[in-house]
Amino acid sequence: MRREAAAPMSVLFIGPVSGTSAHRQAAFRRLGHAVEVVEPRRWLPASPWIDRFEWHVSPGVLGTVVERRLAAWLAARPRFDLVFVDGGSLVTASAVRLLKRHARFVASFNHDDPFGRRDGARFAAYRKAVPEYDLVTVVRPPNLAEAKAHGARDVLLHPMVSDEVAHAPRAMTAQQIDQWSSEVAFVGSWMPERGPFMLDLVKRGVPLAIFGPRWNKAPEWEALRTFHRADYVDGEDYAHAVQGAKISLGLLSKGNRDEHTTRSMEIPALGGLLCAERTDEHRRFYDEDVEALFWADSAECADVCRRLLADEPRRAAVARRGSERAAANGFTSEHLIVRMIERLQGRSA
Asked: 15, 46, 122, 291: least CB-packed within 10 angstroms?
């Protein structure tokens, strides 16, 4: 479902040039907007201690360095129609006020949980900046009220998204199929609650393939090591890992208060079969047992996987219907951007 794009705008995109942030940058350009990108992290020393300071001490202190660099950068640029801040952990309240002197609108999008507890101090500066934005977009229902409680002028709740290009199914060569094929795959980072879950699946005989970083930190690593196929995968490798799997697991981040994740949208968009934790949001996005499969715990997950692996026609039918539903839902990069611009322009009309 593609929304009609707004008239072309000049956009300053502030955020990482990798991961899903890069997808949104590309989506702005596909929609016809002229985009300049600033990555705040590149204005800070290339040291892991900087990241630890941001997450555990004070991102606001680092934000003052970013603001000074940003002021000098803006001085040589014309005024923008829109500043889009992706994430915003290093963008202080005074930096947003600075940006508003150089743009008609300044909006933020954050698909983390900036009002939750998982990420420590990381979003402290963001929370203080919330009242300065013209629009704050969040992806979790609790964040809607939390953003308003922090003084947000306007808040848009939008689900996480897949990307029209990055998550479009692609043809795979015989070599790629051989490299990336698996029975039951999970693509994602280790988190403390995920190790015991995966270990229980292994004990129940589920043929797992794990793709993602930090799994060597898991207390269960020795038992899971042989199931770990690759560290961080992105781009084509990520698409191939999903497309090569007969079943793709959708695990949530408990610390992030997830009821869905980007995988919830990306797996069906790529034509994969989504097998995820049963939540109200997942059941709202997909019809259970028709467009996706859901479970409550590792025991039910293992049972669902065993039955699906033994029933190829059903797997193909569920994957096809899930892909069709994902397209009908329309939760994509371009849809998100169009919705945000519509909201901003509606407020100013």
From this structure: 46
